[in-house]
Automatic annotation (TrEMBL):
Provenance organism: Tribonema minus
Cofactor details (free text): Binds 1 zinc ion.
Cofactor(s), by name: Zn(2+)
Keyword Repeat recorded: no
Protein name in the entry: Putative mitochondrial intermediate peptidase
Keywords: Hydrolase, Metal-binding, Metalloprotease, Mitochondrion, Protease, Transit peptide, Zinc
GO cellular component: mitochondrion
GO MF, one annotated term: metal ion binding
The keyword Glycosyltransferase is assigned to this record: no
Subcellular locations according to the entry: Mitochondrion
SUPFAM superfamilies hit by this protein: Metalloproteases ('zincins'), catalytic domain
One GO term (biological process): peptide metabolic process
InterPro entries, alphabetized: M3A_MIP, MetalloPept_cat_dom_sf, Neurolysin/TOP_dom2, Pept_M3A_M3B, Pept_M3A_M3B_dom
Limits of the Peptidase M3A/M3B catalytic domain: 190-642
Amino acid sequence: MAGVTGLNSPEDFMRLAKVAVGECETIRARMTPAHGQVPSGTRALEQLRDLDRISNTICGVIDAAEFARNVHADPAFREAAEETFDALSGYIQDLNTDSSLHAVLQSMTSCDASMAGFTEEQRRTATLLQSEFERDGIHLPAQERAAIAALQGEILRLETAFNTNISAPDAGGVVEVPLDAATCSAVLRGARDPRIRRQVLRSQNAACAQANAKVLEDLVDARQRLASSLGFDSFAHRSAVDKMLQSPDEVLAFLEDLSSSVKGKARDELQQLQDLKTEVEGEAAGPVQPWDLHFYMGHAKARRYRLDGSAISSYFTLDGCVAGLAKLCEGLFGIRLEERALAEGEAWDGGAARAAGAVAVRKLALSHPTKGDLGTVYLDLGARPGKFVHAAHYTIRCGVLYQRPIVALVASFGLPEASHGQRLLSHGELETLLHEFGHALHSLLSRTEFQHASGTRAPVDWVEVPSHLLEYFAWDERCLGLLSGHHATREPLPPDVARALRASKGMFAGLETQQQVLFASVDQQLFGRRSSDAASVESVVNSAQQKFRATLPGEGGPAGAWHCRFAHFTGYGAGYYSYLYDRVLAANIWQKRFAAEPLSREAGERFWRSILAHGGARDPHHMLSDMLGGDKPSPDCLLREWGVE
């Protein structure tokens, strides 16, 4: 399956897992007896490589299991992958709490001679590995480690409860409108009656408020206690250890700067919506409210640009978009992207799925005239029962100096059109495809010495930069000509439509950015508070919203207890700002290197050489500086993309 040697049946998962654990135990046994010695020279480097071999060996199985448990059409494969994933997760936890392995690293990083003899990547990998060990308290006495383990268990239970409450069905009452995200979004965008929109938004935000208010308070408290036990001022300080922005103060300064930059645009946009609401509902309509936002944004865009989503989709066939990716690779990097036949058992979508008309799995090979074979990307872009429904990039095998990477792009774009048999993408789906392809390029084009630093194994406030950068190609008129072709005539998207799409991109971007700044600010303040700060979650949220009263509708934010259903608090605690930060960095790269000539080979090769090739093996600040020629990134580049000078 998916190019993984020996993975042909569900039973192979556990067999491969046992083989991997055996190999890792052999490596661990030869490392730990000498952990009290101070390694130097080639011995230190060999120990570092041994640690990475352990990681690569386990990831070779657990990454395939993670992939299969989410996408495989065969329930038996999914069940076996789930079992294997759980078993190897437990083994990884055992490795992460091995004080002998930590002692090897500690001896290595404390030896000036060893570190001086390392390359930048070797030093960075050793330091990051040690930091990851110590973030869980392995360097502390046994009693303190036990307390930290108990705290982490408590945090995991709270995170699970928070997410479960968000997705749980309503208890009691007659359900007239389901409160899932997709349904509520459709109502808020399309319902003309403001009373319906108001009721849906308030009900959605109230649905789990009672259950999650206490859970969130407890989660904030537990994370703070964990951070304090590990010697950090706050959970946000702990989170910042391996980030580009190294402290909560830096994060809040960035958010304040970005908010100030878009404040004028957001005010103008809010007034535009107010004028439109008054025109539609009459003078007695009152001010714009949170439940009006998406309805009138869509109304204003449709009136101004007259973009027909269905007509636009007719130019974006799935086959044409994939062919467009190949053209981008050739133009930017000189890379060939060629489809290859799938061997028996290599696909995971099942013959029944293909027989039913679903989009089949495809295999694409990347190659370069001088660098040779670069790796393989599988495309699994059709919807089917039992499959992960969102778009995602999976690394099945990391790319390092001694092995070629294997990745998969997964989405649920649905069935082909009955009238002509071709799958059409919306423009938003094309942007999503490019976003995920940016992650794939990061994995496919990195060539690091260590698997631990390969591809997307990079700081969370850096790793989205390539994917955000690739999104720009979905909005540029010159690139849309390569990515489009009418399903009947093969004609590219008309230039006037491409220009209208581009112009619509920045409409209401000020309001949307202010909304994201609010979310990121609350996230940072909740998990950045210290033990002495007794402010409640509700008071933090209310205080943050007061700052946005002039640039967001209502009371400066969404109606009701939105924070009780903000799932990013669990997955990206103290890191939600990364979404905005990486957008700013990507805008700077686009403006500096690609805006004038998006298919510039010089710019593409610089992107590969300065960023993609290094994965997470270099300090992102250095990679960014190389890409920008030493220029400092600024939010102004993002504003220029929205037409604000």
